[in-house]
Amino acid sequence: GCVKILLVADPQILGKTYDTHFYAGLANYDSDRYLAWYYEQAVEHVQPDVIIFLGDLMDEGTDSTEIHFEEYYTRFGAIFPTHPTAKVIYIPGDNDIGGDGRQPLNPIAKRRFRQYFSERPAWVINDNLTIYNINRITLEMTLNDPRMLDSTGTDVSDRYLRIFVSHIPVLDVPSSFTYTAIHNLKPNVIFSAHLHVSQFARIHRSRLKTVQYKPLSQDKRTAYKVHSFDLSYHQDTQELLEIIVPTCSYRMSVPDIGYGYAAIDGTTLKYTVLWTTRRFYQLISYVVILAVPVVLGLLYVFYKFLREHCGCRPRYERLPK
C-alpha cells in the first residue's frame, strides 16, 4: 500500500551558549513554540507512516555539555513528540556531531547522538521499502543488503524500493564514498537536507560530477504543486534522483520554510512541500502594531509636558480704542 513520509529538516532548536543577547530566552521560547505548532499541524495533515528527521536537530548539539544536552533533548521531545504509530527515524547533522569542515567530527557527540536517538544503518519499513542511513559526515553506511540477492545469487533488487537519507546532499561533490553507496545499494530516491532550501537533482550515474541542483516548489506558481516521479523509470535508466528538503525553522536565514511530504505507492513517488508562514514577517508586524500606540502615547505625554511646563506665555496687548 501507500507509504506516507513526513520529512523534517534542520529544526536546529536553539541552545543557551551561542546567543548571549538579553532576549535569547524569548527567542528560544518563540522558536520552540513555532516549531511545535507547525509540526503538530503537519503530522495531523499527513498522518504519516514514517517520520524522518534529516539532521541538525539541535543548534549546539556538538559542543553542548551533558547537562545542556539533557535539557535540549527534553525540549526536543516536547517540540517533536514521538508518534504512536509512525516509524520515527533520526539521523545526525553537522550541528549534532560536528564534521562540516569548520568543526571536526566529535566522537563523544557522535556516540551520544546514537545513544539518545537510536541511529541505525538501515530501517526496513516493509517488504517493499528499506531506508538506508548514508552518513557523509562519518562516512558510514551499510555495506550491502542481502535482500538484493536471492538464494542463487541473482540480483532481485527491483523487487523493493530503496531510499537513501543523508543530512549532507549525497550527489553534491561526489566522493568514493558516494560511488560505493550508489553502486552497492542502488537507491531509487535520495532525501537530504543541510542547504535549507527546496531543491532537487536528476542525473545519470555516469555524470555525477556535473550534477546541478534546481529549485523545487520555490516559486509562487509551483509552491503547492505535487511532483510525481516514476521510480521504476529512474531504476531502468540508472538515473539518480535527490530531493533536498527545506528547513522547518525560521531561524535559518531563509524566507521559505516547511516540511517535506512524500507518498510512495508502488513505484510512484509523489512529493510536495508543506510551506509554513514566514515568521519574521509576523514578528515585524507585531512590533509595528505594538509600536504605533506606544509612539502615540509618548507623543501625547510629551505634548502634555510642554503644555504644563513651558515657560512661554502668549502676550496680550490692548487693542487701540
Automatic annotation (TrEMBL):
Gene Ontology MF annotations: hydrolase activity
Native organism: Anopheles maculatus
Domain Calcineurin-like phosphoesterase: 4-197
UniProt topology in membrane: Multi-pass membrane protein
A biological process term (GO) from this entry: GPI anchor biosynthetic process
Transmembrane stretches, start-end: 283-303
Keyword rRNA-binding among record annotations: no
Annotated Gene3D superfamilies: 3.60.21.10
Protein's UniProt name: Calcineurin-like phosphoesterase domain-containing protein
Subcellular location: Membrane
Keywords linked to the UniProt accession: Membrane, Transmembrane, Transmembrane helix
One GO cellular component term: membrane
Pfam families from the UniProt entry: Metallophos
